[in-house]
Amino acid sequence: MSLQLQMLGTGSAFAKKYFNNNALLGDGSFTLLIDCGITAPLALHQLGKTFNDLDAVLITHIHGDHVGGLEELAFKMKYAYRRKMKLFIAEALRDVLWEHTLKGGLSQPGEITCLEDAFDVHTLQPGVPCRLSEQIELELIPNRHIPGKDSFSLYINGRIFYSADMTFDPGLLDKLVRERGCDTILHEVQLEGPGEVHTTLSELLSLPEPVQRMIRLMHYADNKDGFVGKTGEMTFLEQGHLYTL
Ligand SMILES: Nc1ccn([C@@H]2O[C@@H]3COP(=O)(O)O[C@H]3[C@H]2O)c(=O)n1
Ligand SMILES: [Zn+2]
Ligand SMILES: [Zn+2]
């Protein structure tokens, strides 16, 4: 069964040419939003969509380009569409998301006093596959992004790896390809500079060519066009384009 992917944005955190790196993943009857950053509401609008077109949202980690649009999502769902959005999130992130990201704006005495008042919360455990819909099964994989902060990549339907934000982990990619049947890798890329909290292009270019051929690059800076043709066997995901995975 194939899935449909449409990147709301493919930009790095502070990109201005591209929206935040947030993704729509669909199976024909279910649409998941992977991360909901500051620009997600506008990006959706420019695609002619609304939050009401979504069935669920999943959060990979707590950075503004991945959660900054959740307040608008929650308020729109509550006051415009009169329903709660299903929220998939790692158990380790749920309290952080409420106490340190959403509580200030979303809380309303007597109406919204916890995450569950704003979302239909489904917590996930890393390493335990969870069936999100008839055709989407997804597993959280803990990754290394910011020291001391929880962050997760996704492994979807036993074949698609979605990096979210992470530093280079060639051992993980090798294991997924060799032992778990991975054939598609959607991977963030920092095009230049040392990889302190992200994966650099030069690190990804060190991977074997067969693995590179599985990689589509995302979460990139505004100067991406200058790197077209310089990414080995890897190609860039384009914002707003429709892909079948
Ligand atoms: N130690 C850190 C922490 C953060 N950052 C920058 O802040 C951004 C937050 O969103 P991101 O997409 O994870 O990218 C991070 C870095 O640009 C960084 O460069 N170094
Ligand atoms: Zn990011
Ligand atoms: Zn991040």
Distance between the termini: 9 Å
The coarse silhouette is: globular
H-E string: EEEHEHHEHHEEEEEHEHHEEE
Structural class: alpha/beta
Assembly type of the chains comes to single chain
Helix content percent band: 25-40%
Order of strands, main sheet, comes to 6-5-4-3-2-1-14
Number of discrete helical segments: 8
- Tell me the strand percentage band: 15-25%
Strands, total number: 14
- C-alpha Rg, in Å? 17 Å
Overall average residue pLDDT: 98
pLDDT under 50 segments (min length 5)? none
Sheet having the most strands: 7 strands, mixed
The distinct ligands, each listed once, are: ligand CC7, zinc ion
Please outline what is shown here.
25% of the residues lie in helices and 24% in strands. With 245 residues, the chain is of the alpha/beta class.
